[in-house]
Amino acid sequence: MEGLGGDTLSAASPASQWRNDAWRVYQFYLDKTTPHAVYRWIGTLVIAAIYCLRVYSVQGFYIVSYGLGIYLLNLLIGFLSPLVDPEVEATDGPLLPTKGSDEFKPFIRRLPEFKFWYSITKAFCIAFVMTFFSMFDVPVFWPILLCYWIVLFTLTMRRQIAHMIKYKYIPISIGKQKYTGKKSSASSSSSRED
Predict the structure, then answer these.
(1) For the segment 131-179, what is each residue's pLDDT rounded down to a tens digit?
(2) How far is CA 181 from the centre of its chain?
(3) Domain ranges in the chain?
(4) Which of 56, 83, 104, 137 is the most buried (most CB within 10 A)?
């Protein structure tokens, strides 16, 4: 019994080991890109431009592009939504600050920026590969798909913006929050000195 299990493991071991090593190298370089957000997004824009040129040059694969657009819209909603939706999950207190005197709580996304970028990049790469297989080139009238996607995008964004206004959160944070001190005590002390 031991001999049979050992033979199977040693036969599958080189392929499994190679796959494991390749995954580690891939993960290592993926981790190294984490702090370089601007360069990551520039790379994704280049990949998106290559995909657009491919679709334009072959004049087809509109259904793949439509599916890609729906997937990207889904990712965008996850990126703009809070981790815990106050509408869905009832809690004891407010999750997001509603007044200036409330405690500052940073906005935590349902889909973090790195996963958002990674999913978009992977989606464009998969869609690009799909353009080389004729079975995915379903003949459709692309202006109808484009109009439907624009309507879907508009309605979804309107609902998302209404949600943001209702629960008073902004999903975009630029830079680090800085403490400016107490304004009222600083202005009163300067008026005393005069």
Answers:
(1) 999 999 999 999 999 999 999 999 999 999 998 888 888 777 666 666 6
(2) 35
(3) 19-171
(4) 137
